[in-house]
Amino acid sequence: MDAKIFFGDVEVTKTKTEEIKNPYSGKVVATFPVCDASDAKEALDIAQEAFRKNRDILLSQRVAWLEDVIEGLREQKEDIARTITDEVGKPIASARVEVERCIETLRLSITAAIEQHGETFNTDAMPSGRKTLAFYKRVPVGVAALITPFNFPLNLIAHKLGPALISGNAVVLKPTPEAPLTAYKFARLFIQSKHRSPNALSVVYGDAEVGSTLVKSPIPRVISFTGSVPVGKIIMSQAGIKKVSLELGGNAATFIDESADLGTAAKKCAVGAFANSGQVCISLQRIYVHEKVADTFAALLAQEANQLMVGDPYDEETFMGPLINEEAVIRAESWVQSAVNEGAELLSGGKREGNLFPPTVMNKVHDAMNIVCEEVFAPIVSIVQVKDFDEALGKINNSPYGLQYSIFTNDLKNTQRAIEEYECGGVVVNDIPTVRFDIQPYGGSKLSGIGKEGPKYALEEFTEMKSVVIC
Predict the structure, then answer these.
(1) pTM of the full predicted structure?
(2) Using CA atoms, how far apart are residues 145 and 214, in angstroms rounded to an integer?
(3) Do 204 and 238 sit in the same domain of this protein?
(4) Are 405 and 287 contained in the same domain?
């Protein structure tokens, strides 16, 4: 099956197409139409008209709409999971989990919309006021433009699309060019539902030209983007006066206290650093370890890394498949070599095999190395020895990013300090910073972004307050 454009409810094909190749095998697994600025403009015009016509559709119908999609996901779970594996090389077991999480995200979107409400306020609270009946309600923004990445090509669409549609907006979705067929199959479930809001969802494909057209247009009232910091900066410069929600990069870190259970911490850190081949915004990248236990922990982590199964993503036992493309693998290998040249110790991994890059543990890393300063987005984790939590805290916060951090400790004071003093959007205690539940408010500080995801909190991004005063 090939991906197609959705101009509202209408499927459209184009003569010019591009191929998608599986990152592991190199085989062509899909094609998709090449869109341009005119396609983006047409999709926006359709969305604007759809929002005007769909204003009176009841919440109960939108609930039924998402329930139809949930049922379709259940019925097509294996096909969609294999499509994810085909396009981005995610291990099939992990792809199935992503489909399940997508279902849960849509269920959470329904619940959040049903529970969302306004409240009354007292206009006679000040001497200048007087008694009225006054309240606010939340209303849809209108048209939303959604731009999504490759690493979770289904569930990260759901985190935007579910809240945007259940709250009554019309949407133009531009999915990642690396996984167009996954997005197409997901969107088709919305389009095929008899409960759909007519023409409320359009899907176009492309890179900078299409994305820039969506962002610059006055039609969308909200831009929701997940991706890199450089692109996020471009969006902020182009968007103009509209709501912008950005979930950007991270440089996730943890501190291993001398009181921590080192065996448990090593097992968890191996998962946090190497799941999805390290291609996660909150992938564990920096581990600061108390000097008294640093050598022991480093050996345990290297042991855990060497036990992970790397290879064919279609194998049920595979934990880690390929990186998304050759460019990503070459970059990862060069960063490791650069760190080794600067004095870092390679404890495991470090050498590519095709687009596979094994779990890589670096020891004796210092603060100036790229693998500590920048977002790696690869299965590389660095161990830095510190004398105490104070030193770790300074180093962890000394980053332009601030998505999620964690701490492994049995010291209550260090736990309290981590919660209060970590400069980030989320803190995890006695687990990895890679922990994310779809129900939680998720989003960072500093260069890691603006706004929150998690359906309840995303509804605030896709709606706005309308104040009502009845005199």
Answers:
(1) 0.97
(2) 7
(3) yes
(4) yes
The chain-wide mean pLDDT, for the chain, equals: 97
**Range(s) of the domain holding residue 465:** 5-248+448-470
Q: 399-443, pLDDT tens digit by residue?
A: 999 999 999 999 999 999 999 999 999 999 999 999 999 999 999
Mean pLDDT calculated for residue range 143-165 = 98
DSSP 384-442: EEESSHHHHHHHHHSSSEESEEEEE-S-HHHHHHHHHH--SSEEEESS-TT---TTS-B
Query: Residues 6 or more apart from 223 whose CB is under 8 A from it?
Result: 144, 145, 147, 214, 215, 235, 239, 242, 243, 244, 245
Question: Mind listing the pLDDT tens digit for each residue in 178-231?
Answer: 999 999 999 999 999 999 999 999 999 999 999 999 999 999 999 999 999 999
Residues 85 and 191 in one domain: yes
pLDDT level of residue 370 (50, 70, 90 thresholds)? confident
141 and 233 co-located in one domain: yes
Q: Which two tokens stand for residue 313?
A: 């993503």
In a domain, 443, yes or no: no
With a cut of 90, say whether residue 171 has pLDDT above it.
yes
Asked if 281 and 160 sit in the same domain, the reply is no
Q: How many domains is the chain partitioned into structurally?
A: 2
- The span from the first CA to the last CA of the chain, in angstroms, equals 59
Maximum Cα interatomic distance, the chain, rounded to a whole number of Å: 74
Is the Cβ–Cβ distance between 356 and 322 less than 8 Å? Answer: yes
| Rounded Cα gap, residues 147 and 296, in angstroms | 43
| Same-domain status, 121 and 230 | yes
What one-character DSSP code corresponds to residue 276?
G
- Which residues are catalytic, by number? 247, 281
Tell me the per-residue pLDDT of 84-100, one tens digit each, with 9 for 90 and over: 999 999 999 999 999 99
Helices 77-88, 92-115: axis angle to 10 degrees equals 120
Q: What is the CATH number of the domain that holds 33?
A: 3.40.605.10
> 70 Cβ partners below 8 Å, 6+ apart?
103, 106, 107
Say which CATH number the domain at 350 has: 3.40.309.10
